[in-house]
Design a protein that fits this description.
Layout: E1 8-15, H1 22-34, E2 39-46, H2 53-60, E3 67-71, H3 78-87, E4 93-96, H4 106-116, E5 121-129, H5 134-150, E6 159-166, H6 167-175, H7 183-190, E7 194-201, H8 213-227, H9 230-256, H10 260-294
Parallel strand pairs: 1-2, 1-4, 2-3, 5-7
Antiparallel strand pairs: 4-6, 5-6
Helix pairs in contact: 9-10
Bound molecules: uridine-5'-diphosphate (UDP) and magnesium ion.
Length: 316
Amino acid sequence: MEKSTDDLVSIVLPVFNEEQGIQRTIDTLEAFIDNQPQQFELIFVDDGSRDKSVQLISEARQFHNNIKIVQFSRNFGHQLAITAGIRYTSGDAVVVMDADLQDPPAVIVEMIKKWQAGADVVYGKRVSRDGESLFKKVTAAVFYRTLKRITNVDIPLDTGDFRLMDRQVVNELAKMNETDPYVRGMVSWVGFNQTSVEYERQERIAGVSKYPFSKMLRLAMDGVTSFSSFPLQLANWLGSFSIIFSFGYLFITLMTGFNTLQFAVFSLFLLMGLGLLSLGLVGAYLFRVFEASRKRPLYIVARTKGFQSASKHSST
Ligand code: UDP
Ligand code: MG
């Protein structure tokens, strides 16, 4: 079919044991692409699947020359699959989506419209989640709200990794070599013009979720430790509280009569407070080491004007 624009859109799909639904995903996406004016490439990142997923995707390449495969040597996890996938893209815009069609392809049209209107990141905001357990919905709702409170980066609520990113954003992400990446947080951290489209998350077409509770917990920990020092500050708060409490206690007991036992209680709280406070201080220094070790760029320059050779890569 004749394409009316020469934009290339890359779609990155992490795949882990999706043999039951992958064929339908490919068929649905190819049918979708046929009706779009842009060029598309589909980059499947096989995250160490132990089933026929790769074989099925490879076979589909005979019929669709826009399919590309990045195959991991083992299961490295969803976030690293996305991280790798976007590095292999060459599109002007990059879309990340689940390989189980939980993220409806039709939403991509809306994302592209907003991108063409000037947005650099268009993330999908889930207004509903079909076919997911009450447990998952509740834990996710609580987690994203807590994370928002304790982090200093504005990570949008009810948003997974389904999103469109401009090439410039993808280039910045590709520079971030984080050991345990929390991609949705990193995209927020990068900045630029970010906006959302609302969508209804569908039931997965086949198979079961590849996110058991253990992986969910790990993702949540990565989110917190990547973007918040709150847990480390907790020791400071508890320590300060304990010291204040000890002096309050001392004051009250001095008024009402003071004995050895009460002095012991006072000392206990005072020492515990000092101990926790020191721990918090150690934590604060540790966090700086941790921040430095992440090697995030210190800042990102969105655009420059008036320079002889405008450099897109002037971050350090
Ligand atoms: N996935 C992956 N590696 C993993 C777990 C999941 O690449 O270790 C893929 C999976 O195949 C799917 C996407 O990441 O395309 C999201 O996983 P899933 O759909 O199981 O999570 P849920 O939608 O249930 O949160
Ligand atoms: Mg899914």
